[in-house]
Design goal:
The structure is a homodimer. By secondary structure, chain A is α/β, with parallel strands linked by helices. The first copy, chain A, has three domains: 9-52, lambda repressor-like DNA-binding domains (434 Repressor (Amino-terminal Domain), Orthogonal Bundle); 64-166 and 300-329, 3-Layer(aba) Sandwich (Rossmann fold); 167-298, Response regulator (Rossmann fold), CATH 3.40.50. Chain A has helices spanning 9-16, 20-27, 35-48, 54-61, 77-92, 106-118, 139-143, 167-180, 197-211, 229-240, 254-266, 300-316, and strands spanning 66-71, 96-101, 123-126, 148-151, 161-165, 186-190, 221-223, 248-250, 276-278, 295-296, 326-329, 333-334. Chain A has a six-stranded parallel beta sheet with strand order 2-1-3-4-5-11, sandwiched between helices. The first copy, chain A, has a four-stranded parallel beta sheet with strand order 7-6-8-9, sandwiched between helices. The longest helix of chain A has 17 residues, at 300-316. Chain A is elongated. Chain A starts with 8 loop residues before the first helix and ends in a 7-residue tail after the last strand. β2 of chain A pairs antiparallel with β2 (96-101) of chain B, so a sheet runs across the interface. Chain A binds a DNA duplex through α2 and α4. Chains A, B: InterPro entries: HTH_LacI, LacI/GalR-like_sensor, Lambda_DNA-bd_dom_sf, Peripla_BP_I.
Chain lengths: 341, 341
DNA sequence: TTGTACGCGTTATCAA
DNA sequence: TTGATAACGCGTACAA
């Protein structure tokens, strides 16, 4: 029977007749320790089966080398790619990533925020829950100089780092593309509150209409309860049932765009000629639906990488009086079959 | 300027003229502490802005309440759903999840395993890297009674918990379904080593052919370098170029199945009548491709949940002499348009 | 019901 | 270049 005992630097020190401080330093290649000692220590550490205990080190040094990530969910392609980007950049720097899902619930978000703090994460990356209006629960990180980065779904009035795309510009571009394809009656689906990214995309849509001299028609703007195929199908049916149906649709997500195409196909409405469609995100499904869905690229992995790097950089710097700048990443119109006519 | 100082149980103790042990207990609703004291302690803790330090608690108690998750990648729909399941079950039990990607590299997997151990995670859930043949790097968890669960891609010869589907049976079912639809020449794409799940699916395919009295033809089995659209398209072209092309294809992944359908469509080969196709996983894209791809359901979230629950249960039990059982989850044939004729 | 006192494994400070 | 020793913040026997 293998009675396991934890080998500590103390055990190594005893065996080698050295001080624990020497062992600690030797294991980290501290310059003040002779090469000979370093080698000797590392060798016996290995022999004895020594395993560093990050908990003890973190407690003492007050540095956990862990980045907390708090997202609405992780199964959306955009968000899993975002995590991937965060994880890759963190791993490269020797940082771990601890992940939590708010499931778009404000309450869960508040609780998880506490939990992240209790774990004394070195930094936090967060995309806000749909429900969240108030961001006081993040104040604790500010108070402790824990770098905090909001990504994609960011608060309006809270001075922190932010990594975003220009949702207004993207909405404008998407709508403008439809206009350039000759669409005159462009519909839009929207969702969420006036603080959401969807609101900004909608504002872009409205601005593009205006700039093109197209009058906005209320019946062409449909508000959804949530981002699902079902909700989008309902909306599409409603739009196509209009006396004067739209000849183009900009949906602020690919699930919605795909659903609109499917609905149009079912009803015999030709895409793109009778109805041009453009989505958002460049999810895998957008490239599978027939006809392929035009979309707006959303650089998920890059945004994750950028967020992590901001944290890492901030940890290296003096931490005080930092400028909490906003990082904008590019989006592009990806023209595919569903809008090309 | 807000000079931040950490409020500890010691500070609370001083303020209330109580012992730290009393504070510690009161904050955890220990039964030996009077209600009055508990209330008083909690109140002043809040007032003083006390925040528990999980690091210190973990160091002391040797319990981190953290589950380490080590996966090849997290962007595949199956794996992100798996994580979601793990995260939901863990969160419910007050456990955190720390996530790492091996990117299918054996070397990275070894390193990350060390890192997980150094963080003294309470349990580990792992799906092996494609490259991994040897699992000695997990021995450290065995030696320390850290519950270890392999999920989906599990090692053949290593006595731990395993949460899997029956890949052989699933491959058999998929192939058999095609046979039931009248297919006589069924092709199969495969990938990876003889230790992979793909190998088992292939064995199921072969067994189904045999049981149906269909002779296996070598030219109908195509080996891919990796699971990508491009590789599958190459394979599909090769198959359709045959003098005697197949009338059915079983692909052990939906990306492959979708790609085969796309290739067939391009070439004017009718799916399902000229070529029936069935995939694997029930990824979102399988339900978007036209015609819809029949597939094998793969209960990702359930598997994640089951894995986490095994860890949690194991942590509660005596930890010694446990039976390291294998948990099999169900798969089903999901018949859609691509194979129905 | 509450208090005393020590240890978890490491790092940091100061001294040698 | 190395050593002695005190923290880091909390939990837990054991005592009161």
């Amino acid at each position: 029977m293998k009675e396991h005992v934890e080998v500590t630097i103390y055990d190594i020190a005893e065996k080698l007749n050295l001080a624990t401080s020497t062992i600690s330093r030797a294991l980290k290649d501290h310059h003040s320790i002779s090469k000979k000692t370093i080698e000797k220590v590392k060798k016996t550490a290995k022999e004895m089966g020594y395993r560093p205990n990050n908990l003890a080190a973190s407690l003492r040094s007050k540095k956990t080398k862990t980045i907390g990530v708090l997202l609405p969910t992780i199964t959306q392609p955009f968000l899993s790619s975002l995590i991937s980007g965060i994880e890759i950049a963190s791993q490269k720097a020797g940082y771990n990533v601890i992940i939590m899902q708010s499931h778009d619930s404000y309450e869960e978000e508040v609780n998880l925020t506490q939990s992240l703090y209790n774990n004394r994460v070195s930094g936090v990356i967060c995309s806000l829950a749909m429900q969240t209006q108030n961001t006081d629960h993040f104040q604790v990180f500010m108070d402790n100089n824990t770098p905090l980065v909001f990504v994609d779904r960011v608060p309006k009035h809270f001075s922190t780092f932010r990594v975003v795309i220009d949702n207004f510009a993207a909405g404008y571009k998407a709508t403008n593309h439809l206009i350039s394809q000759g669409c005159k009656r462009i519909a839009h689906l929207t969702v969420g509150s006036e603080f959401s990214i969807y609101h900004e995309r909608k504002m872009g849509y409205l601005a593009a209409l205006k700039d093109a001299g197209l009058t906005f028609e209320d019946e062409l703007l449909v508000r959804l309860k949530e981002v699902t195929y079902e909700e989008a199908e309902k909306a599409a049916n409603k739009l196509l049932d209009l006396k004067n149906p739209p000849d183009g649709v900009f949906t602020p997500g690919d699930i919605l765009g795909v659903s609109v195409i499917q609905c149009a196909k079912k009803r015999g409405v030709k895409v793109p000629n009778a109805l041009a469609v453009i989505g958002f995100n460049n999810d895998p499904i957008s490239n599978i639906i027939d006809p392929n869905l035009s979309t707006i690229t959303h650089p998920a992995e890059k945004m994750g990488k950028a967020s992590a790097e901001i944290i890492l950089k901030s940890l290296k710097s003096s931490k005080k009086d930092e400028v909490k700048e906003i990082t904008f990443l590019n989006t592009e119109v990806l023209v595919r079959e569903s809008s090309l006519r």
